[in-house]
Amino acid sequence: MKSPLFKCLCAKSPKEKVKLLENLCCLLSEFLGTGMLMFLGCMGCIESDAFESSSLLRSLNFGMIVLIIIQCFGCCSGAHLNPAVTLASYIYDMISLPMVVGYIVVQILGAICGYGLLKVFLPMDLIQVPGKSTALCLTSVHANIATWQAVGIEMCITATLMWVCCGVWDSRNKMFQDSVPIRFGMTVAALSMTAGPLTGASMNPARSLAPAIWNNQMQDQWIYWVGPLLSSIIATNFYKYVFKSQDCEEEKPNTKVNVAQISCP
Fold first, then answer.
1. Helix and strand tally (H, E) in the chain?
2. How far is residue 22's CA from residue 36's CA, in Å, rounded to a whole number?
3. Which of 92, 99, 116, 206 could disulfide-link 111, Cβ–Cβ 3.0 to 4.6 Å?
4. How far apart are CA 143 and CA 198, in angstroms?
5. CA of residue 261 relative to chain centroid, distance
6. What percent of the chain has pLDDT over 90?
């Protein structure tokens, strides 16, 4: 299979080259944005005797980082930062299937690189949270929460995030885009405060996978894939067929509308 760069160089028409360059720009911004999410978001979760932390502080930190990234890259790729959001945008008829695959691949790679950069700059005693068996920013299920409950919690909070995305994409909101970074930042912060102590409030498979890979702690990782992705499919289809305005069916939304998502501590 030919790479996007090869296709771009061999494109016959200027229009083809512009389109391919735009696609590459989208992929690069998703890679950088997801890397920033892991690097800056997880850095704000440092906890030790020298660095005090709390669930509230971690939640607000991730929300503010999401706000910053949407402001940076929302106009380029939509700043999905999350395979669940990318899947939702495909269901909502905003992005092609090949780009869905490209987005998810670069999101995973960006998350892995972002967390790897964190391990380069931070001493090991900060990566391994003192007094805990889990590593920095690793999502895990609370001991008192059953597996099926964890899946249900991740599905519910991801559904909320997906409905926020659908509401932003709805053509009835096309005149109210200036505050999108704030909306998503506050949504992520609120959902993190709500479910963070229970499941880590991931809502984002890429965000959960990167710390698990780097710290070789893959336990319960399937929860953070099945829950968010299944919820994305159900919640987005529900909104699409129940609430989506008729105008959206006739005029597909711009694929570069700010849509983030994120993940949480």
1. 11, 0
2. 21
3. 206
4. 9
5. 4
6. 65
